[in-house]
Design brief:
One of its GO terms (biological process) is 3-(3-hydroxy)phenylpropionate catabolic process. With 492 residues, the chain is an alpha+beta fold. It is built from 13 helices and 27 strands. The strands form 6 sheets. It has an 8-stranded mixed sheet with strand order 6-5-14-15-16-13-17-20, covered by helices on one side. Strands 8-2-1-12-19-18 form a 6-stranded mixed sheet. The relative contact order is 0.12.
């Protein structure tokens, strides 16, 4: 029987291949490059994205090649800070630091090793020219005419995706395009900084500067109309951060930061993920994270469909859940980008005191982040919410916990919650789970039967974070999907 074919060996393609491989699904990854792509691109992942890496078994390796960032500073044209978003470098709600900086080639090396451990082959030097379906399932068409049969095809081949073109995905433009010069540096002596990201809010030349890891740094500079990457005086533009001779330019490349979305993410068992499905400007650092979120959302669903545990309608929920979330995140990135980089002289003069004042208001950061949190719509796989604070469709937090499974097992040392829950469905309660489903307790009979039909592992924890979360959601127990989204609750 054909396996799943993943087109594209970037982080999103490797992640979904690794997740499927760990679930026992046969997978092959095809990529046009014979070697890992050596040019750095993404540099930031939040705690939710690192949690996906945890499901791949590589979060500790990622921690070794990354570093927690201390937050974001907004600087005026003279590079004076006027507002700060601070980040705690300790683990956050998802069990990992909330802002993590890294160099993408390092991450890709970690992911390639992970897919090899999962038994997934990566076939390089292959040019995919199209995807066809003659009624006997999809086939990936390669240059030279070879046709590779597939149980499903996952297009992770980035902007200008061949797979997206094959399914006639179309493009929905969300109204943003800026040209930027991205410069990656090495400086053995180091470049002065505060451990976070600096955003220069100067309409004459907006810029972003950050320390990645070790001796690696990045500076991004907005380009004006008529400018070319080779025509800019790079030493002069980098002078606010580093003097000539103190650094080596690893690369300089022009990028157009865009905001757009595929109008169609799926045709049958051909689906799009990551940049093939959506592009967003980098101002809130969510581009790669949304791709990993796509992988986490789709992998368990596709595995369930392929082995007959669910119908094809489960795949309908992939775009229905991910697209609205990605649109919300993209619009947030566009708003932030315009506020930081746009405007004429009067707008820029007004922006500094207004933004600084808003950031000083209690709860300002929490409100700013609320719009990009996962909140999936109701479906057969997510119960409808009655009140705004209800838990279905949201993601369970992940503290380090002690607990016991429904079979009476005991966990004496603390582990991250997902390690205790295992890879499948889970029934999580803040009370006993070994009583019968009709007995008094936090789990009602209907939820118990539903969990049993799904093979969910029953887990009880005594943890203040989870108890508080359940109490705020007025839930005694929750049924968690493999991607840790709440499907249903027992109400208190």
């Amino acid at each position: 029987m054909p396996g799943v074919v993943v087109v594209g060996a970037g982080p999103t393609g490797l992640a979904v291949a690794g997740l499927l491989g760990r679930l026992g699904v046969p997978v092959t990854v095809l990529d046009r490059h014979t070697e890992p792509y050596a040019r750095p691109r993404a540099v930031h992942l939040d705690g939710a994205a690192v949690r996906v890496l945890q499901h791949l078994g590589v979060h500790e390796e990622f921690a070794a090649i990354s570093r927690p960032a201390t937050g974001l500073r907004l600087l005026d044209a003279a590079h004076r800070p006027f507002a700060v978003f601070r980040r705690d470098t300790a683990p956050g709600v998802h069990g990992h630091p909330e802002a993590n900086l890294f160099d993408q080639p390092d991450l890709e090396a970690v992911l390639r090793a992970a897919v090899r451990r999962a038994g997934v082959p990566v076939r390089g030097g292959v040019e995919v020219t199209g995807v066809s379906d003659d009624g006997d399932g999809p086939h990936v068409v390669l240059a030279g005419g070879e046709r590779v049969p597939a149980a499903a095809v996952l297009g992770c081949d980035g902007a200008g995706s061949t797979v997206a073109a094959a399914i006639g995905s179309g493009t929905r433009v969300l109204g943003f395009a800026q040209r930027w010069l991205v410069v990656d540096l090495r400086s053995p002596a180091g470049i002065a900084g505060w451990g976070g990201v600096d955003q220069v809010c100067d309409p004459r030349r907006a810029a972003t500067a950050l320390h990645l890891t070790g001796d690696r740094y990045r500076v991004e500079l907005r380009m004006h109309d008529g400018e070319t990457a080779d025509g800019l005086d790079l030493p002069a533009l980098l002078a606010p951060w580093a003097s000539p001779g103190s650094y080596t330019v690893v690369r300089r490349a022009e990028y157009v930061f865009r905001a757009q979305l595929a109008r169609r993410w799926r045709r049958g068992r051909v689906l799009l993920l990551g940049d093939a499905a959506h592009l967003m400007p980098p101002f809130i650092g969510q581009g790669l994270g949304t791709g990993l979120g796509d992988a986490h959302n789709l992998a368990w669903k596709l595995a369930a469909v392929l082995d007959g545990r669910a119908g094809e309608d489960l795949l309908d929920t992939y775009e229905a859940e991910r697209a609205p979330h990605v649109v919300a995140v993209t619009r947030a990135a566009v708003r932030v980008g315009r506020a930081m980089t746009g405007g004429n002289g009067l707008f820029a003069a007004l922006r500094r005191p207004v933004v600084a004042g808003l950031l000083r208001l209690p709860g300002a950061e929490a409100r700013a982040l609320a719009g990009i949190r996962t909140r999936y719509p109701p479906s057969a796989w997510v119960d409808r919410r009655v009140r705004r604070g209800d838990l279905p469709g949201t993601v369970c937090p992940q503290p380090a916990v002690r607990g016991s499974g429904g079979r009476g097992g005991d966990l004496r040392s603390r582990v991250l919650l997902d390690e205790l829950l295992g890879p499948g469905w889970a029934l999580l309660a803040a009370g006993p789970t070994d009583a019968g489903p009709t007995d008094a307790g936090p789990i009602d009979a209907a939820l118990g039967r539903r969990a049993g039909a799904l093979g969910a592992r029953a887990v009880v924890v005594d943890d203040p974070v989870l108890r508080g979360w359940l109490a705020r959601g007025r839930a005694g127990a929750v049924l968690l999907r493999p991607d840790r989204v709440v499907a249903a609750v027992s109400r208190t």
